[in-house]
Amino acid sequence: MTISHRIRLYGLGLMAMLAGCRSPQPALAPVLPAPPMAVLEALSDIKQTFAPDGRVAHFKTELVAQGKQWILRGETNLPNAKTALLQKLSGIDFAITDSLQLLPNASVGEKTWAIANNAVINLRYQPEHAGEMATQVLLGQVVRVLKAQDYWYWVQTPDGYLAWVEAGALHRITPEAQKAYELTPKVIYLRPYGFALAQPNTESEPVSDLTFGNVLGFEGEEAGYVRVTYPDGRKGYVHNTEVTNYATWQAETRATTTSLVASAKRLMGVPYLWGGTSTKGVDCSGFTKTIYEMNGLMLQRDASQQAREGVLVDDKGDFSKLQAGDLLFFGKKATSNSRERVIHVGMWIGGGRFIHSSSRVQINSMNPENSDFSAYERGRYLYSRRMLGHVPAMRLTMPIAEQ
User: Fold this and answer.
1) Which of 330, 318, 306 lies closest to 380, judged by CA?
2) What angle (nearest 5°) sits at the alpha carbon of residue 274, between those of residues 186 and 172?
3) Which of the four pLDDT bands, split at 50, 70 and 90, describes residue 12?
4) Rounded distance between C-alpha atoms, residue 66 and residue 68, angstroms
5) Number of Cβ atoms within 10 Å of the Cβ of 115
6) Is the CB of residue 327 less than 8 Å from the CB of residue 237?
7) Which are the contacts of 215, defined by CB distance < 8 A and separation ≥ 6?
8) pLDDT, greater one: 8 or 392
9) Beta-strand (E) ranges in 112-214?
């Protein structure tokens, strides 16, 4: 997403009313001087420093001439960026009135957080159902609510992604309730797909479907089932073999090359879904992100973002350097006229093969002698990076300190 700074120059046109041949012309009003280059450079520098990636950081500004003054307008979810900008501008001998809005804004009210209330909720780039899907958030994950428009909220996900979600998919809460939620006993659902039931027996009707990574409140156990609560207060029962204590899982889960491969293969055949990051459907980077989340680790959302994580292990096509769990990136190499474009990602599983979401989750080989060799993917291979040991633990919410 490109964030531009628009400079609006409002000149004062000459309006001469000639009442007669001897009527004097009115004096010209002074033209408001244009902002010096130092001001424009300050805006650009702050954007590049604090918000180089508009998918995870919002910094939109414009200078507007109004009467006899210049107004700094726009919005940002980065308090530190605004502070740094105002400090820079204060060192420039040019008067600007600050009207830059910090998010969350007044349209949100006091409930500036929300918990995902469905097994999977779809987030979109525009506040409408016809909008392109950007990503997904799972039941029990917490998003920060930044602004409202009609029946939609613009939110920031635990991995920092910014997108719109319809209001009915969320349970809004205050900052105090968000802190309390972190301390609430919870369970995490561990199967790729299943259901919470209205009663503790297999014949009961479902309360909702569930996917791996869903988090619910824990209320006790009954007849081999765990009694759970949803963010909006609904109750349900999940078989005790399908969930485990969330805090324990978080503390004891250790990702290994073996566990990453096993998790990836559990999703074999799951259909490709643009914007998907759940076991219901995944795109290429949503698939690698889900694999790592199943092992307690968090990757960024898109392939081009994941390509900046971890450490480089190969950029020559020497696959002997790779270990299971390394991510392979595909796309177009940089040229003298164009930048590198990362457009696909998969995960190495050993034996010359990688697993990826392309039409569906499937395995292909980099070895031309194998029947599952993909000449197409081999031809657009860029490099591989190691994430294991270099990415943070999964979390339910994005700390304010990172905003």
Assistant:
1) 330
2) 35
3) very low
4) 6
5) 23
6) no
7) 138, 139, 140, 141, 186, 187, 188, 189, 246, 396
8) 392
9) 113-116, 120-124, 133-138, 142-149, 152-156, 162-166, 170-173, 186-189, 193-197, 206-211
CB 257 within 8 A of CB 325: yes
Residue 252, judged by CB atoms within 10 A of its CB (0-12, 13-18, 19+), counts as exposed
Which residue pairs, CB below 8 angstroms and at least 24 apart, start in 62-68?
62/5, 62/6, 62/7, 62/8, 63/5, 63/6, 63/7, 63/8, 63/35, 63/39, 63/96, 64/8, 65/8, 65/9, 65/10, 65/32, 66/10, 68/32
Residue 347: strand pairing partners: 327, 355
What span, in angstroms and rounded, lies between the C-alpha atoms of 104 and 17? 49
Phi first, then psi: what are they for 291, rounded to 5°?
-55, -50
Which DSSP category does 271 fall into? Answer: B
DSSP-derived 3-state class of residue 361: strand
What pLDDT sits at residue 398? 85
Q: Which of 289, 218, 230, 236 lies closest to 260 in space, CA to CA?
A: 289
Which contiguous run of DSSP H or E holds residue 325?
Answer: none
Q: Could you tell me the end-to-end alpha-carbon distance of the chain, in angstroms, rounded to an integer?
A: 18
Q: SS3 of 179, please?
A: helix
Per-residue pLDDT tens for 279-292?
A: 999 999 999 999 99
CB atoms within 10 A of CB 218: 18
Catalytic residues: 284, 344, 356
Distances (CA, A) of 167 to 148, 177, 204: 9, 18, 29
* pLDDT score of 10 more than 50: no
* DSSP state letters, 136-155: EEETT-EEEEEEEETTEEEE
Single pTM value for the model: 0.90
- What is the C-alpha separation between 288 and 384, in angstroms, rounded? 13
